[in-house]
Amino acid sequence: MVYREQNIKIDRNLPEGEYKREYARVWRKQNKEFVRDYNKSRYANSLERVRSFKRSYIEYMGSECVMCGLMFDGDNAAVFDFHHVDPSQKECGFAGNNRKLETVKSELDKCVLVCSNCHRLLHAGVIELDTHLEAI
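Now predict its structure.
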């Protein structure tokens, strides 16, 4: 990733904040490839870390949707959600969660593992969790 040094010409009479924004805008426009490659490498690592955390959460929760029985196979983590059994007990969500399993176990213990389809049906009121939990 190499970026080119430019001689960027921007009106110096702009207020400082506006000058910096304009300079950054022009620089990013002239260095599109560098910015793209930088962002790709920067966010690829954090995305994989978040995905590995979610995989560990799913395995902790039993690796199976409690409603329909869909099994976690290692590659389908994106289809699983954590549904709070009692919404009043919810302290945090798991979207984009970036925390180790040990720090979220207490919150996971308030949840059940469901696939995204069943999760939407639960919130829509089409199916109920109580009848499925009794069968387990």
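Residues 16-135 form one domain.
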